[in-house]
């Protein structure tokens, strides 16, 4: 079986989207499938960082570059401006469209991941171009997430995007979701769509699970890793950094994104000596660094849109056996509380988050118990070695017709 993966984000790009697609590519290849990738040159969060050798550390991919087609993009960086980002997405979509149109290869399955929704439409075109089955991988509900970050609320355009979204769902042969919180959204669209759904979460690979001793038990380390963007509530993160400083708790930030500079300026302006900035790094290096900390934190804006989302950073924290302290609601809140892998405030309360962190700081037994729960939860639910079988079973069904 020949499979074409179409994705904007791919190795060596950091972030959960690039890592998800890299892992699916590698694991399907290991299972004996012929897999090729159509993607872009790495630009997220900026093109410059990928000149460093440390990001190019997947030998299995680096030695098999002929299976990966990377299209160059004129627009060099991400922007918080909606229209700048829109033109960036459209440029990628058009370049991918032209590539698919001219491509002479044949594929049995097209696997396309969204957002952005424009790349998903390339997948739809590829379905007809190659006369293939279309697997639509949904990592975020779009345009719902547009409304959630509050950058664009023009009703006609949102309505148009929603029509585009519905058309994609209708034309896809199967729909893969990375959060069970998305199920109700599809039910509300059409009861029949739920029959197309398959849950395939972001996960850890067994080799990524790191067991390292904390370097200094006298220092309690909190880590924030990942995107500091429009959805992450940078105001709350700033106040949290300040409050943790009052309790002499270290905050390690391995961050990037359009709001990082705002956060950095706040830290400098308030002379927060407890905040340590760490440059973005390759995935395994990042996991190793995170594993030296005690607690991982996550924040999302107070919008109903994000009640369905399980942030990728939470899976990474659990991989490192870090209990989570978060400001979330809905599906991720229930999961964290039910599995006893952290504490969650749904009231956007900085004081409540700090109190949760202090509770773990002052109760080593509770911290150890939650660390153990994190490890068990990953082993039982979020290992790629187990979960990839869901996808291969689906591919086998497709092969049988």
Overview of the structural elements:
The protein has 401 residues and is of the alpha/beta class. The protein folds into 2 domains: 2-203 and 383-400, Glycogen Phosphorylase B (Rossmann fold); 206-381, Glycogen Phosphorylase B (Rossmann fold), CATH 3.40.50.2000. It is 45% helix and 16% strand. It is built from 15 helices and 13 strands. The strands form 2 sheets. It has a 7-stranded parallel β-sheet, sandwiched between helices. A 6-stranded parallel β-sheet has the order 10-9-8-11-12-13, sandwiched between helices. Helix 7 (183-189) links the parallel strand 6 and strand 7 (197-199). Helix 4 packs parallel to helix 6 (155-171), helix 8 packs parallel to helix 9 and helix 11 (312-319) packs across helix 14. It is globular and about 60 Å long. The two termini are 13 Å apart. This is Glycosyltransferase WbuB. The chain crosses the membrane at residues 106-126.
